[in-house]
Amino acid sequence: MSAADTGFALVHGPADPILDRLDRWSRWIAIVGFIGLCIIAILTTWDGLARYMFWPRLSGYADFVDVVLAVAIATCFPAGLLHRNNITIRFVGSMLGGRKASVVEAIGATVTLGFFSLLAWQVWAFVIELKSSGRTSATIEMAIWPWWWSTAALLALTVPIQCFVVWRSWSEAFGRRGLPPADD
Predict the structure, then answer these.
(1) Is 109 within a domain?
(2) What is the DSSP track for 11-46?
(3) Cα–Cα nearest to 81, from 155, 9, 171
């Protein structure tokens, strides 16, 4: 997928190899998460039908969904942050206009970086606690730390991506090359 496929090149001029590469990788990660959500949807449908049709139920279904859902959700964060699809309030920046709006966006991107850094750190601490305690799922007694390790790794990927967004946001605030407009 090139910048032309994503709309980045159309909006922002010449190709940007760093942005293209980050966009391609983050979208593939999000596709993996989408596939995981589709699997969960299929299993949920089966489990729901099994309740009413007296078919065999899926043993450990809730255990599986509890851990896979966290991984699937975390796969969306890198692409969401790169495209700046996170929740923002732009009315202050729009009232200020111009460079001041860019500074407000850069401050928001910096705060978002701080949030995801803290979130990744806390999830890693949770993974360490899960592994050291040997905690397993309730029904099928599978180790849950590997699933949360995957979630923590995906959240850790958000930090360098958001660093890139912060760097480009501050660059734009000082009149240099920024990011394409946010996907509102």
Answers:
(1) yes
(2) HHSS--HHHHHHHHHHHHHHHHHHHHHHHHHHHHHH
(3) 155
**Mean pLDDT per 10-residue section of the chain, whose length is 184 residues:** 48 71 94 94 92 86 91 95 80 73 88 97 97 93 95 96 93 79 62
Considering only CA atoms, which of 87, 39, 42, 48 is closest in space to residue 67?
A: 39
- Residue 174 three-state SS: coil
| Model pLDDT, residue 184 | 52
Position 181 in a domain: no
Of the candidates 31, 64, 67, which has an alpha carbon nearest to the alpha carbon of residue 47? 64
**In a domain? residue 50:** yes
Q: Is residue 9 part of a domain?
A: no
pTM of the model: 0.81
18 Cβ contact list (under 8 Å, min separation 6): 164
Give the chain's domain count. 1
Domain span holding position 103: 16-173
**DSSP assignment letter at 143:** B
76's tokens:
């969306």
CA-to-CA separations, 115 to 34, 88, 100, 110, in angstroms, rounded? 24, 14, 23, 9
